[in-house]
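Handout, section B. The chain below has 319 residues.
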Amino acid sequence: MTTWTKVTGDFDFFSGHFDVRHRRLKHPLTDSSEWEEFDGTTTAHTYFDGQISIDETHFPQQGTYGLSLRLFDPVAKQWSIWWVSSTSMKLYPPVHGSWSADGTTCTLIGDDEHDGRPVLCRFVWSDITETTAHWEQAYSGDGGASWETNWTMDFTRRDTPPPALDVPKVTDEFDFLVGSWSFHNRRRRPVLGEPHEWYEHDATLQATTYFDGAVSFDEGWFPSEGFRGATFRLYDPVSREWSIYWSNSKNGRLEPPVVGKWNADGTGVFEGPDTWDGQPIDVRFHWTAGTDKAAWEQAFSTDQGKTWTTNWFMEHTRI
């Protein structure tokens, strides 16, 4: 059995409920000085014993949500942060960076675009205390030679959860997974090729939702395998499809998504391109939903979906 070792506590300060004062530049990169100010709330959690940080921000005046997904790479000792807005339900391009040696600031930079124009985007965390924190975002249109700050957030810890947003619920398709599960794994070794054998092991899972069901997240513990796994799911209300991303605690990366939807019979099929040992493959997830029992399986294809090799089964039982 694996004994988990905590590898980072960088964002442990950012756990709980916060009131937020926003100040945002209305028209970035236009020499405008017109700012808007408004209030909001944020609730934040950590997973993987600190390696994953997720927060959900409420914008009551706008009737929208925002979410930050942070993953820590234990090898590079670097954070990657993605932003999701409920108005688009897409992952924005990530920013990457790390905390200063004295732990007082965290600077992260990545490629993005604004109004169709390529820009660099920078996040900076600072002024961290037990009850407060400061965050700001800046854009650069000249490769980082100069920066314009366009959004600041000042966080103040609150004792109680914020009120729910009064907005329509767009989906409940992964609500069945909320809660605690044990699950039995049956896995193919190797996942492709012959000869092969099957091996089995047990694991546990804790699942929750954000955006009132439009984001689904679960954290799995695989003690005999020496890693934890996390699944991050985003629902697109226009296409009515889910994009499902996987992350392994050993590398802190967000793997390419599989995309698909649920069928009327309570099964869901999700597919997407990936690579395995350097060769291009297609990946397929198949879910069977249930209240106290659920099932998932994974298959790979090396011939563009003509044939599939199933290599992983999970049988879930609610705890």
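Note. The mean pLDDT is 97. Compare this with the example in section A.
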